[in-house]
Amino acid sequence: MIALSSFKGKDEVINLAGNWHFEIDRNDVGVTEKWYHKNLSDNIKLPGSMAEFLKGDEITLKTKWTGSIYDSSFYFRPSLKKYREPGNIHIPFWLTPARHYVGAAWYQKEVNIPKNWKGKRILLRLERAHIETRVWVNDKEVGLQNSLVAPHVYDLSPYLTIGKQRISIRIDNRIKEINVGPDSHSITDHTQGNWNGIIGKMALESSLPIYIDDVQIYPDVKNRIARVKITVKNSSQSNFSGKLVISAKSFNVKSSDETKEVVSKIAVSKSDNKTIELELPFGKGMLTWDEFNPALYHLNVKLASKEINNSKSVQFGMREFKIEGNRFLINGVPVFLRGTVHNCEFPLTGYPATTVEAWETILRKIKSYGLNHVRFHSWCPPEAAFIAADKVGLYLQPEGPSWPNHGPKIGLGQPVDQFLYDETTRMAKEYGNYASFTMLSAGNEPAGNQVKYLNEFVDFWKAKDNRRVYTGMSVGGSWPVVPNAEYQSRGGVRGLKWEKMPETESDFSSGIAPFKVPFVAHEIGQYCVFPNFEEIKKYTGVYRAKNFEMFRQDLEDHHMRDQSKDFLNASGKLQVLCYKNEIEKMLRTPGYAGFQALGLQDFPGQGTALVGVLDAFFQEKGYVTAQEYARFCNSTVPLAKIPKFVYNNGETFKAEIVLFHSGKTALQNAVISWTVKNEKGDVLSSGKFDPKTFENGNGLFVGNFDFALGQIKEASKLILEVKVNGTDYVNDWNFWVYPEKNSEIASEVYYTTVFDDKAKDVLNKGGKVFLNAAGKVVKGKEVEMHFLPVFWNTSWFKMRPPHVTGMLIQEKSPAFADFPTSYHSDLQWWDIQNRAQVMNLEDFPADFRPLIQPIDTWFMNRRLALVFEAQVGNGKLIVSSANLGPDVQNKPSSQQLFYSIVKYMNSNQFNPKNKLNFEVIKDVFTSPSREVFNTYTKDSPDELKPNSNQNKVK
User: Fold this and answer.
1) How far apart are CA 866 and CA 876, in angstroms?
2) Which H, E and C letters describe 473-513, residue by residue?
3) What pLDDT does residue 939 have?
4) Is the pTM of this model over 0.70?
5) pLDDT > 50? residue 8
6) Pfam families this protein is in (predicted)?
């Protein structure tokens, strides 16, 4: 019989962090050779990973990665041969870890069990072990656990005795019977990497054999109560009789609230457990949790009797996240989800952070960009992320740790089927009380018998736990619909239709009309930006940006390294323009429920997807600030419906002003005002609308205004700004006005569409030639330019167009004196740039820089031109592969740019720096590019395979 007594003291927890004995089990012989009996030969520190302490193998071309490689051209391209040499290996698909190892490894530590732990219950808690653990105490095996989402917890009570004890842990990070998919962000080299180790809290925890095993809290905001389910276990050989006492107290906001205690008797038979449910009433001062006021409580649970007195504290928030029709509600208030996708990017460690401070930094950065939601793509973060999100006020969608595709499939009886139920059950138990855990998906983009499996998955969770809302898996637009999903996290209704002239009048209403539940856009954006090579020096930890080093060297080999920062900023400005327009399109769509952008930050894998305005460290790149981004992405955003962005001064600019509002309360008596300014900041026109109250909603009508453009005499960029008076909510749009009729020029320029003998003769005689080479380009015709930039990246999508990610414009050149432009693409460039041919300048002098330079995919780094100038013979030449000329109609920007260039050519300022011979120019129109991309690859991403997403069951 064990005497039960109150237990408190320094030996309650033995911290296991620190030095451990270690040995790699390459040949998988440790179990049969009983390594738990021997002293391991090496040492390592835990928490940590093998790679962190340089344990494992050097990276070679034969490294067996965890992750799909669809573009194998790296292994074959002659131009990349030097990056395949031993000692100079540069992997382009993802970041390169310091060491790589997939297999079994052993960790061993001796611990001293104190005398006062005799008869106690002793748990070994291993937070975020990766992946499979087996544990021995001395020579006895305790068990095996597999979880990518929750701590591995072992009851060592039957195995430990007082005094020195040896604990051995075998960790195996191979994909074995349970295959979640090699590209799942829980394991893949594309993101965190498939590391081996333990990275969170590691401890032996002792308690009395009668203990509070589990506490789950179910808020009922309307009735001001919390239902509290408490499970008490009795592992002793005595019956237990005592009482449970619960109470809650707020702790993180200025307002304070505290409940009265609720007391209940409880009796638990020996070697048994009991779950009881108590109601905890709140008073009128009850505080609710949401993004605006994330008020939290600590629930204190005491288990007491004459012999024992122990307690447990649980963080929670009084909130209800529900669905009504096609919208989400937080505590009864409609909420629009403005989200980003977190893919487990941790480039310093190669594994996720497990401290609240680290997660708070990340999540506050996300929130500063006007976002209120985070989806965790095919992984679940550690507990610290939920604690931090509760404090910051963000709505989270963690996922089952699986992308069951590219190998495994769901609904066919494979082990992953049960594993996803087991893992999500562990997630609900470990993190279910956190207010931020509002949504759950089973994973990402599955294959197999998915509809039946996911219908049953959603039904299971709807019946089991009402604290959050459930979808099947997060999917692209061609995946089958899961009818039972409470909301859709889905592609197909997203993107910008900029094959037509840009406008801000259209919306996504027709696309979401078939869906009667909330529609959340899956992975919007994916607009690429050129690499920021200044980022390379940040990689001081486990990873090196060998991909960036390779891209930088290739850029230097193509004589453009000095332009890298300009390429970054110019492509970055276009990227922000695209995100702004796509987000605004959703904000003005009535009934749209939210988006999950991919992403706010870069994705380090899948060929290197530089789709973020932040880098993989969640730090700014320099071309947009959080304040600038939050103008078009926020809880309240003024919007303008504008039919076009280029006008002549005989027209009238017209706009319908609408408002997006997703606030804690209605916007009361709001006055919306507008101004039109020129680039100097002079106000040309302004107005305001009558005060009005706006409830939460998308595309709420405010009013119309127009502005006659007759006063604009010169080609001008104007800015429309709309704001909610008395608040920080303001938004703006550029538009351009050109003269309806430009003044006549007495031109000395010979205009031609063929670079022929006559052009050569004019040049030899000292004349000026404008060559409109649209449609005539041979050297560079394989490079496809749209107005939109590269999607995701050209490697993962096997050079699917577009190949260009914006343009760098020499805006200070007098060639643009009558064509207002910055150094980057903006909407006035659309009719010039979209689908225009580009010229490959591979044979031009190394220092040659065109007036307008399309920025190639960084996998090729070809020197490209849209418009260039040069001295040829005794004359001067401008060549345009965009269709610029006197006969161009219905393209106002093209016409205005042609006018500006010809006016420049007729001035004494026309003095090109570079001298070229006739043949090198003519070669652009006669000879193909010497450097041409070859995929060398037969396979391709699912997204490129016809009907692949349905993945027919075989």
Assistant:
1) 17
2) CEECCCCCCCCCCCCEEECCCCCCCCCCCCCCCCCCHHHHC
3) 65
4) yes
5) no
6) Glyco_hydro_2, Glyco_hydro_2_N
